[in-house]
């Protein structure tokens, strides 16, 4: 049986109320009495009842993390970043995986609301569907969105500059001489929409026409979906010579489709992903990508959430959008490394 406050009180020769006060560092308990009680509690291997404490203090010291795909190292890194900041601050994490399913997401969030002090969410909801989160925030929930935002929702957001990410990827392919650049688009979330905007912006800036036939949509799970989309695309007469995939799993799926069709990356199709997942550089053809720190996103999100929970941040911080700047990570899949090698050999 677990040790109770009554067990400690009996052993220490004090009342149960005194034990409770000592464990909760109440000022009415002397230092000597508190040290004696804590020593007894340690010897009896006392473990506080988290749920009873939550009822007394209205605080669980738990943070809920809701992400769409824990198998994707990007979201694992976000969770790790949250933990790195939250644990030293005295908070533990509960992680839920939604598999990009909006119904699952809402169900998980509703379950977490009654057990946690706040939530860090990478939402699968379309960018314009903020009604659910608007309601729970109005009812007092502490929510920080990470990686993706919802239009009109007043809460902190920690994200990358996804328009710039799409622009950088597309510009890179244009600078390598490609004019027929395809885009594998995501599921309608804010980051997918913004990367599409960046793709279109780069085409416009460099004098290339936007062609809707060069945009194809992938769905979750992105690697297998992108494989099927690309397999069909490669059989068309005017296939792209280069591809910007809205995330790395999509880029990896597209790469497999190209190879299985008997073609080569980057010679036949150059590919750039987005998000810099861990194993991208370990592929047979290492994946060129756009990168920023997912761990930093998690750390910043945890900091903002704990400030909200403890009331220590400014009012402005409760609605702040924190944007990380992405940068290119050039590997073999785009062909740039090959071009540099040829140039050096000619030199």
Written account of the structure:
- By secondary structure, the chain is of the alpha/beta class.
- The chain folds into three domains: 5-48, 434 Repressor (Amino-terminal Domain) (Orthogonal Bundle); 57-160 and 293-325, Response regulator (Rossmann fold); 162-292 and 329-346, Rossmann fold.
- It is 44% helix and 14% strand.
- The protein has helices at residues 5-12, 16-23, 31-43, 50-57, 73-86, 102-113, 131-138, 162-175, 190-205, 222-233, 248-260, 294-310, 336-346; strands spanning 62-67, 92-97, 118-121, 143-146, 157-160, 181-185, 215-217, 242-245, 270-272, 289-291, 321-324, 327-329.
- It has a six-stranded parallel sheet, sandwiched between helices. A four-stranded parallel sheet has the order 7-6-8-9.
- α7 (131-138) links the parallel β3 (118-121) and β4 (143-146).
- The longest helix has 17 residues, at 294-310.
- The N and C termini lie far apart (78 Å).
- Residues 340-347 have low confidence and may be disordered.
Order of helices and strands: HHHHEHEHEHEEHEHEHEHEEHEEH
Average the pLDDT over all residues and give the rounded result. Answer: 91
What is the β-strand count? 12
- Distance between the ends: 78 Å
CATH architecture annotation name of the largest domain:
3-Layer(aba) Sandwich
Give the proportion of residues in helices: 40-55%
Beta-strand content bin:
5-15%
**What is the CATH topology assignment of the largest domain?**
Rossmann fold
Q: Looking across the biggest beta sheet, what order are the strands in?
A: 2-1-3-4-5-11
What ranges have pLDDT less than 50 throughout 5 or more consecutive residues?
Answer: 340-347
CATH first level of the largest domain: Alpha Beta
Oligomeric state of shown chains: single chain
Q: Which secondary-structure class do the elements indicate?
A: alpha/beta
Radius of gyration: 26 Å
Our count of helices gives 13
Could you say how many structural domains there are in total? 3
By CATH, the superfamily of the largest domain comes out as Response regulator
The largest pleated sheet is described as:
6 strands, parallel
Query: How would the global form be characterised?
Result: elongated
């Amino acid at each position: 049986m677990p040790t109770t406050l009554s067990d400690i009180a009996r052993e220490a020769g004090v009342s149960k109320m005194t034990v409770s006060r000592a464990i909760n560092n109440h000022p009415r308990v002397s230092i000597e009495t508190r040290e004696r009680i804590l020593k007894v509690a340690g010897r009896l291997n006392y473990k506080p009842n988290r749920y009873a404490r939550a009822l007394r203090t209205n605080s669980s010291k738990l943070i809920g993390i809701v992400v769409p795909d824990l198998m994707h190292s990007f979201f694992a890194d976000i969770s790790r970043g949250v933990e790195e900041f939250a644990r030293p601050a005295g908070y533990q994490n509960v992680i839920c995986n939604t598999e990009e399913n909006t119904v699952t997401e809402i169900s998980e969030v509703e379950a977490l609301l009654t057990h946690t002090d706040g939530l860090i969410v990478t939402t699968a909801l379309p960018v314009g569907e903020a009604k659910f989160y608007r309601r729970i925030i109005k009812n007092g929930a502490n929510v920080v969105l990470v990686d993706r935002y919802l239009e009109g929702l007043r809460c902190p957001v920690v994200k990358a500059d996804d328009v710039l990410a799409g622009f950088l990827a597309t510009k890179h392919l244009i600078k390598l001489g490609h004019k027929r650049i395809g885009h594998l688009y995501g599921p309608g979330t804010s980051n997918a929409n913004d990367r599409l905007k960046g793709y279109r912006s780069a085409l416009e800036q460099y004098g290339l026409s936007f062609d809707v036939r060069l945009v194809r949509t992938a769905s979750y799970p992105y690697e297998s979906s992108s494989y099927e989309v690309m397999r069909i695309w490669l059989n068309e007469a005017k296939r792209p010579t280069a591809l910007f995939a809205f995330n790395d799993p999509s880029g990896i799926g597209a790469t497999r489709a190209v190879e299985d069709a008997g073609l080569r990356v980057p010679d036949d199709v150059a590919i750039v992903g987005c998000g810099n997942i861990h194993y991208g550089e370990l592929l047979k053809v290492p994946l060129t990508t756009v990168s920023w720190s997912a761990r930093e996103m998690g750390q910043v999100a945890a900091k903002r959430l704990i400030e909200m929970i403890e009331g220590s941040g400014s009012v402005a911080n409760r609605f702040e959008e924190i944007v990380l700047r992405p940068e290119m990570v050039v590997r073999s899949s785009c062909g740039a490394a090959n071009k540099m090698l040829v140039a050096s050999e000619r030199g």
